[in-house]
Amino acid sequence: MKLEEIAALLGNFGRYQILLIVYASILSCMGCWVTFSHVFFAAGTDHWCSVLPRENCSGWPGFQDNCTELKKAIFLPPSEDESSIYPYSNCKQWDLLEGYVFDPYAPLADVDNFTYSAVPCNSGWVYDTSQYKTTVNSEFDLVCEDKDLPSFSQSIYFVGFLVSSVIVGTLSDWIGRKTALSVSLLLWVVGFIVTTFSVNIYMYMACRFLSGFGEYGAWLSCFVLAIENVPKSRRTAVTMLFGITYAVGYFFLATAAMFVREWRPLCLIMSLATIPVLLPLPFVQESISWLVSKGKLEEADAVIRRVAKFNKKTVPDVLFDKEDDQNEMESRESAIPPSLIDLYRTSNMAAKTINMQYNWLVNSLVYYGLSQSTGDLGVDDYWAFFVSGAVEIPALTYAAFGVERFGRKWNTAVLELIGGVACLIAIFIPTGIWRTAVSMIGKFCISATFSIIYLYSGELFPTPIRAIGIGMCSVSSRIGGIISPLVLLLGRNVPSIVFGCSAIVAGILVFFLPETKGRKLPQTLEEAEAMGKCNCMAGNVSNESAIELDGEGCDKEGVSPVSIERSLRPKNEEKSELSA
């Protein structure tokens, strides 16, 4: 019995499939917590040298209420960083010699044991607690010489993504989706909880790596499980649903951070909230398609019957013809397996692969960069982060309908160009509500294209190497995530320049890709190589043959007009339904 027939017997979209999608949606929402919790754990706060920490101006009437500001004005030199929003230095103080006696009335030039020589803070730092009571930065003194370590820790989190995409992706095909999900989910929860008890930045980094590894592995395994259990006609909608629930995670995180201003309690609350996702694991069934592909027909039979019973469906006594299935497996095993080299073996396929890899890298770079820099927009951090998540919902909604109305190519290209221009325009707008608005336009565009390229890539790569191609694009995406926190270290406006220019280049490159809307998925390497060979950036290519063109001088199969025999195929065979 074919998998399509089995799916029909189980009800295609029954109670089990719905609950599995709900479960995956919850994991998607919580995945946002883990990824962006660092925005609040390691939020940047004002800090300055701790000078005369025991002096509270109690002996000086009129100065008690403003003692801190008085000491900052007296003992801190002007800031040397032109991009700093603070008028005084965060990392240096005027040198105080032994025996200095504090006197706010005495002119500094007349005070003994005081010198205008600026020296590094020698008694630690004082942190502004008006917005954040404690952060990783303030607790571990990650400022001045160590100010880049928090960003490195977020990059290490994305390194966990990268390693997980390789290891867990392989394990998922080797030991099964459910086992990979269970192991990854356990690592995610443990890593997130242990983060709360980090004693230094290096332990924090290790926990972030473990959390990233587990979170991405759990999501990858659960996503595959969900997609393999829903009919093709619903896969695009389900994928968009996961994107929307991920955006909802912004709301929960921003709300929790708004009420819990200390990073350890916030981390503990959010990590403990992930424990309940372990409870449904015993009820999650292994992928039927994976069991069949591995020849585990008895286990597949048992899973089918459990799901059928839960969905209140009946199945025949005999589901598999062991002889036919054995012959199919032997045929599959005797076939030459696809390889990574096939992506780059021919010029056209290599060009499309590299183009898509760059687009995935840029989308990840800009998306995570904009999401992690909401605290630099000059408005309330919590509301900026909240709005950053809110714009993703209409963006994903538009993407779901826009790709069917205007196609994959034009949507991706135009939105990337608009998003890139928005990032560049934001440079010239002072921090505040208007800069936030323009930045959110960029976030809207990049959120939409980030979801579209998943579908676009799946339709560009041929069936034998589709998984390998998307896997390589995913690796590029993870690299973009790793780079994004480091780009934010380059200065006040440099990140916007990097994001804007890279997005514009990505948008231009998309014009060199073929449109895939309404085309049959390429089934062979030859079909994929032919797709887009006649592509041009501007308009139609004239052709006197009877082939129906798609606006790029290509027929609906995506092959060159010289392939006349393709035009002889009936149109109803050419317009098969695409799936994400």
- Approximate helicity band: 55-70%
With helices defined by DSSP (H or I, 4 residues minimum), what is the helix count? 21
Mean pLDDT value: 81
Distance between the ends: 24 Å
Strand content: under 5%
Largest sheet descriptor: 2 strands, antiparallel
Strand order of the largest sheet: 1-4
Shape category: globular
Oligomer: single chain
Order of helices and strands: HHEHEEEHHHHHHHHHHHHHHHHHH
Tell me the total number of β-strands.
4
Structural class: mainly alpha
Low-confidence stretches at least 5 residues in length (pLDDT < 50)? Answer: 536-580
Radius of gyration based on Cα positions: 28 Å
How would you describe what is shown here?
- The protein has 21 helices and four strands.
- It is mainly alpha-helical and 580 residues long.
- The strands form two sheets. Strands 1-4 form a two-stranded antiparallel sheet.
- α5 runs antiparallel to α18.
